[in-house]
Amino acid sequence: MDFESIKRLGLDHIGIDATTSFESFDPSTTNHTIFIHLLKLDEISCPLCGVVNDYVCTGSRSQILKYSSAVEDNISIKLYRRTFKCKSCGHNFKESNPFTEAKRSTSLHKDIKILEALKGLNLNYTSIAKRFNVSVTYVTNLFDKKVDLNRLPLPEVMCVDEVYSKRLSHHKYCFIIYSPYDRKIIDVVDSRRMNNLIDYFSRIPLAEKNNVKYFSMDLYDNYRDLAKKCFPKAIICADSFHVIKNLSQFFHRIRIRIMKKYGHLKDNNDNYYWLFKKYWKLLTKDSSKLSYKHFETRSNQWMTCREVIDYMLSIDSDLKLAYELLHEYRNFNEKATIDNAAE
Q: Is the pLDDT of residue 325 over 50?
């Protein structure tokens, strides 16, 4: 393997033995493999005891590495490294690996090319992983490890939530800060624990935190305590998604309680049970979108969707109140705008 080939591959700064190294390329499969032997160093010291040139060579070991050059994204390097045994302390060790960090199989050159590709606005983790023949997890972990994005300024209306992140972080959940006006993520904190969040916000100037007027959150108690401690001037409010979720859960508890109350009538095909059992989804739909077509119920009655709902609501006053509260909030939430909410 001549030095021009070594230089073309971006390896000219590494002590490669050109007389024993060679490359192989298969045009049919585009498999490009470089077989590399390293030049023996004049001084070799034991990493354990530090004694220089007091060793015996015990052979060599090969290792497959993923590499990228300036013109090729996927190259395989088969690196042969000599193994030594220190005569002074008996420690076994190998030649240093000039291509990768310890216990890694992907070269620094390839990592750099992946990070450069991540700058593309039209590319995602999956497409880049496919291009460089690595896993999506490898690309995401490399980005998280090497890229440090600056936090955006805290907005007047700040939304917080968590996302499951066990595979990407040491903690089970990450804490997300989001601006609904700008539709941008302000920052991501790798833990939602109270002490970690207080430590994070304590590093933000008080004047910036005082500019936050609304603190929107789910119903997690720790977030409420966090807002009181770090954002004393902000109005704490629950986000609409979790309000509707809670209202829906309580509504369905009432519906199930009433259905079970008339469970003894199910063998009689009685509406008191089967309407709640079979047509309960009608209670969750927007009344303006209900069909006016008649259909036959299990009790051999012909009814419209609206009539079924009215019949169910007439059976129990608690259910009717819960139904009206749920849909009244949904209507309010759909008609409300961001501008009105901020006034």
A: yes
